[in-house]
Amino acid sequence: MNESDTSRHFLRQWIEKDVAEGRTGGKVVTRFPPEPNGYIHIGHAKAVCLDFGMAELFGGECHLRLDDTNPTKESDEYAENIKKDIRWLGFQWSGEGDGKEPGFYNASNMFDKMYDIAEELIRRGQAYCCNLTQDEWKEYRGVPERPGRPSPSRDTSPERNLALFREMRDGKYADGEWCLRAKIDMASPNIHFRDPVIYRIRHVAHYHLGDKWCVYPMYDFAHPIEDALEGVTHSMCTLEFEVHRPLYDWVVDRLDEMGLLPVRNGVKLRTQQREFARLNITYTVMSKRLLLQLVTEGHVSGWDDPRMPTVCGMRRRGYTPGAIREFCERVGVTKVESESDPALLEWCVREELNQKALRRMAVLDPVKVVVDNWQGGAREVELPNNPLDESAGVRKIPFGGTVWIDRADFMEVPEKKFFRMAPGQEVRLRGACIFKCTHCVKDESGRVAEIHGTWDEASWGGNAADGRKVKGTIHWVDSATGVQAEFRLYDRLFTEKDPLKDGPSEFLKYMNPDSLKIRRGYVEPLLAAAAPGERFQFERTGYFVADETDFKPGSPVFNRTVSLKDSYKPS
Length: 571
Ligand code: ATP
Ligand code: MG
Hints:
Elements: H1 10-20, E1 29-32, H2 42-57, E2 61-66, H3 76-89, E3 104-106, H4 111-123, E4 127-130, H5 134-141, H6 158-169, E5 179-182, E6 197-201, E7 215-217, H7 219-230, E8 234-238, H8 245-257, E9 263-264, E10 267-268, E11 272-276, E12 279-281, H9 288-296, H10 311-317, H11 321-331, E13 338-340, H12 342-356, E14 358-360, E15 362-363, E16 366-371, E17 379-384, E18 394-399, E19 402-406, E20 426-429, E21 433-442, E22 448-455, E23 472-474, E24 477-478, E25 483-490, E26 516-523, E27 535-538, E28 542-546, E29 557-562
Parallel strand pairs: 1-2, 2-3, 8-11, 12-13, 14-27, 16-22, 20-23, 25-29
Antiparallel strand pairs: 4-5, 5-6, 6-7, 9-10, 15-26, 16-19, 17-18, 19-24, 20-21, 21-22, 25-26, 27-28, 28-29
Helix pairs in contact: 2-11, 7-8, 11-12
The protein binds adenosine-5'-triphosphate (ATP) and magnesium ion.
């Protein structure tokens, strides 16, 4: 991709400038901060590519930080899979880490520090405990156009606040009874700046720390502390956090006053936040909450269902990490919200697989073809593994005179311009010979049961000795050695461009009833020994991957990754 367009985006320029002006202490440090409350999806992949990509570009470090400050919904299963998916995308976290592993952090490991910082804010008169209800607070906080009113607790003494905060911590109060607010500016036109909550009471066990805490820090307080204390220099997040940035900076200023900002090579590291537009894709939903709903209600087989926009779903579908990275690159980093077409991602997948995938033959909707004048047992056909890559070599496939072909490749009464198999018409059986159909046999229901014909014995290899042209070439699977297989054909999960157009409670009605079709057919013998996760081009049929979970050597299962062709062209 051209250096001058999407890759030199505003965030890259922002970092470049800081590097040039010596603000990083010699090392760019970024972070990717997923909450372990679900699997990562293609939207997260964009953030992964950006966070890790920028660190790589500037020779710095990217931390993987599990933002596990919200005690509900989090789990180690999610955490482990997030790591697996990031590695699969081709990235590795690095840096010091907070104990177990280089570059890896649990935000919850900072709870003690965050708590201490909160107490220090109280001592400095910069935070206070408040017991207004949410409804009352709405009233006090007011609207952007007019200043709000101070909470009755706003001017309580630090001593009293400290005692209250400790009582909150010690479990004396119920959820919501009290909270800790930063004392900032009740007249600010930015609502987030009007004495925001920084600690709240939640009597919920944390997945790592159990019942140690019943007060938990809010994101707006926790995130800048995590960034700052880890020595992050550039903190990139999605646009909805732009209005929170003054608060981010406010917290960093307080840390600075407390002398808590780290120093690297004589440079005090002041983390900064910038925002970019999130990735949206049409014909799917992306919020983890809705994806979880699809899973728990059984609308899909799991987070890794190949129709899911999750990274693990895409892996199981056969998408490649390279194609996902290329897609993120092409979508680009901007400040304008937009929607991307899933066809662009499919195009990226197809481009890569066309270069790399080994060619094989598979018949998804089989009908038998008998070569009546075949004699002398099986012969071997030799075909290239990949015509675009000579180094991929060739393969040998037995041909014994009886083969499966796809039903759609035969017409008893051919339409105009139907150059495939039909009585009286010659076709090439790919790599084997020229075959002329004579007739077909039908079952009681009138369905074609068997096709008969003869081969031109001077055409072994597929070309006529006299040089006559044969228009149609048909893929086939030898019936004696072909292996039965299951094919899972996937389509979009939703029929509507924006499944949320009627609100999040209505999106299920736009699910595509035909998003999964199962076919049973045959594959050439080599495919029985494919490795789960191995990708192929089934000639004339599409790109397929051996299912990473259900593929067994005796009973192969292939997922269709993407069709062979599409009219889509990237702009
Ligand atoms: P969701 O809303 O899908 O549940 P989230 O934003 O709550 O996602 P986090 O785990 O908090 O998920 O996100 C981790 C990082 O990924 C954040 O920095 C977030 O900004 C980024 N991110 C999440 N969704 C997208 C997206 N669609 N496009 C780009 N970045 C995203
Ligand atoms: Mg989040």
